[in-house]
Every structure is written in structure tokens, then in C-alpha cells.
Give the backbone structure.
Amino acid sequence: LRSMPGVDPRRIFVMGGSIGGGLAPILAAAEPHGITGVIAVSGFTRTWYEHMLEIERRRLTLSGGSPAQVNSAMRGFAQFYADYLMGGRTPEQVLAARPALRPLWYDEPTRQYGRPAAYYQAVQRLDVEAAWGALAERSIPALVVWGEYDWIMGRAEAERAVEIVNARKPGLAQLVVLAKTDHSLMTYASIAAAFADEGPRNDGAAGRAITAWLRERSARADRTAAPGSRGR
């Protein structure tokens, strides 16, 4: 991007959604020449193991499981994901070693969400929190966007990213919570409707929030540019 004549190096932003919301700060923190800002949409911040336990709890609850059923299942999932994500085994290998956990598993033997088990084991090794801390030390601003009805990534993930940055540089990170919006930035009548994917619509709120932040940050880049420089 920096070598392209149509790109202003003062306006290079990194944006990622879902898992990309965790990769965006990692990529930005690793960029030696600096990034103008980071936008994380529907992302994660804590370890993938913690994330998976939280999503399983929400999934079971929204599926109608009783508190006792959910708690019982979570004990099994805690063991399953420890063996799978941190033990380097495929789901099939975990279940072969722990057959009592078989009723819990609902995906493929060697894959999850259409990706190989090794992919999620690599995600587990990421240190997203450290990346957010590195962005703060470099004074790179961030916009974190989360939807009220996002049952895949919890609000605590978004709040944690903002907390890490602002603890070091107050006001450097901003959290935008989109009303009635799910993980894919569609709006629904309720979180139950979002879980069942009933009646989705796009109200454009995410685009407006992101565009407004980009314009504001680009204007700041212009104000801090060296005299005589020209934006493109």
C-alpha cells in the first residue's frame, strides 16, 4: 500500500471482522512503519479457549437448555476444548480418548466451522491482548464495534480490548455498540430471532459508525501532517 501512488500513507487503516477482529491489532502491532488506526468488528480479545466456552454456554442457553443441563455440558466442554485447542488433538481424537464426551460434539471429526482443527489451535496460540497493549504504547487509535445481539462474540470481548488500550492511553479506543445487531451486522427483533436467523435486515448503522470514525481520524491525520504536505 505504501508504494502505491494513490495511497496516502497517513491514512492506512486495518479493519477485521470476527476472527479478523483479533487479527487486525496483531497485524497493526507488527507493522514497523505504523498504522493510522485499527477497526475491530465483532471480534475476540481473550484466548480462543475462553471464547469457545462462552459461545457454547450462550448456544446451549439460547437453544433452550435448562441451567442444570447447561452447567453439566459446560463441564464436559471445558475438558473437550482443553484437549482439542491446547492438547493439539482433533475432535475425533479427543472423543476417542474420552467417549463420555461424544454426546456434546455437533461438528465434523477433524474440522470445526468448516476449518481444520489446526486452524483453531493456531488461533488459540495468538496473544490478542498483548497486541492491543502494543497498539496503545504506539498511540494507534482503535474503533471496536460490537452488536447487542451478537451471541457468537460476547460484549466482554469488545470491552476488554477498549479497556486494555484506554488503561494506557485514555480515550485512544472507542467502543460502539450497535442496537439489535448480530455478529454479521444484521438487525433482528430480539436475540432469539438473531439466534434463529429470523427476519434479518441491514439498517446500515455499522457502516455509518465506521465511516464517521474514519473521517474523523483522517481529519486528525491532516491536522498533524507536516506543513506543505498534501493528502490524497
Observations:
- DSSP finds nine helices and six strands in the chain.
- The beta strands are 13-17, 37-41, 111-112, 115-116, 142-147, 173-178.
